[in-house]
Amino acid sequence: MPAVYEATLDYARSQDQVDTLFPFRERFLFPQHNDEDVRYFCGNSLGLQPKSVEYLMTRELRDWARYGVEGHFRAGYPWFSYHHFFTERLAKLVGAQKDEVVAMNALTVNLHLLMLSFYRPTPGRYKILMEAGAFPSDQYAIETQVRMYGYDPADAIVEIAPREGAHLIEHEDILKGIADSGETLALVMIGGVNYYTGQFFDLAGITAAAHAVGAYCGFDLAHAVGNVSLSLHDWDVDFACWCSYKYLNSGPGGVGGAFVHQRHGNDPAMFRLAGWWGNGEENRFKMQKGFHPQPGAAGWQMSNAPVFNMVAHNAALDIFDKAGMDALRRKSVHLTGYMEYLLRQVAHLDFEVITPTDPERRGCQLSLLFGANGRQVFDTLTENGVVADWREPNVIRIAPVPLYNTYEDCYRLYELMVSVEE
Ligand SMILES: *Cc1c(COP(=O)(O)O)cnc(C)c1O
Asked: Binding positions for pyridoxal 5'-phosphate (predicted)?
């Protein structure tokens, strides 16, 4: 789309006026700055609270008070089958079949649990390929899994880094790393959208390359879910996990999610650590010996659903469902394109946008790497009611999210940057 943007407030407002998703911002609560809503660019870190959460939370508390244990079957959303309420909406968000997704636990926990199924190293095939500079939690998870089986991370973990002087990782370098590791490669595990640069990897291409050498392929979609369009089933991804408190607006520490491809999910022989909630539901309360997993990703559940931690998820996914991921993504490409255009007009400050310029290779986040003055720019934004995020040593991340950010938000951010002296 050859967008013709303009760096004026009038233009920004005219875009908001024709934006059919504009009314969705009314569904969220914004932190206040001088009695006004902040301009919130941190949806990549912690999404805003849907207004409906308070009512739904109160209703859940009421059901608990009213029914006690009977709430498992009599609550408005019966707790016994609580996770079922998410499958359809989650499946749509990540491009999966309904039985391939489940809301459970938290992200890093799910990463560990899924690696216990998909990383089963043997002396010949024990390596894991990942991107350099992955989110620390993923690095720790992978390192400790490798150690658990007695391997040396320096040997067993293959990291693909940006080339000398570059910030982004070349797709062909990932493919080459996979091919070079060949039969020694057990697993490819990559963050779908890199948290620092905002680079969106070619997940279909990576999956195919991993399968070509006989390795499994999994993704951490913390920064991808609710941000970019995903087709996990069609891409033939083996497994994936994500959190719900970033783009999905489901609250701090909100319940995580997991994807297991049907061909594994429906294989009861697939190893997993078992708990009663993953057992066939018809036998769940019979308290018998012998674990017989229910089909699909739900068979990886261990504990009963943390209901109060899933209430906000329920509210937030409703909003996503109403807005529709296709419409959100369309706006996102245009809105982030506008933000990028505005940033390019700021010539007097020493920074570069290190996020890919190709909209296909990024979500909504833009990462600004500063040579100087970064902290000063960040402080100016903060003092003026613009919430962005600072990553040491010198990066400002901003995420204009299509659900609640406006073109005017982007313009105001630009205006403040222009006001910072060289
Ligand atoms: C946010 C994030 C996490 C956080 O993990 P939790 O288990 O939810 O605390 C992990 N990995 C990535 C890539 C993230 O972006």
From this structure: 107-108, 135-138, 220, 223, 245, 276, 304
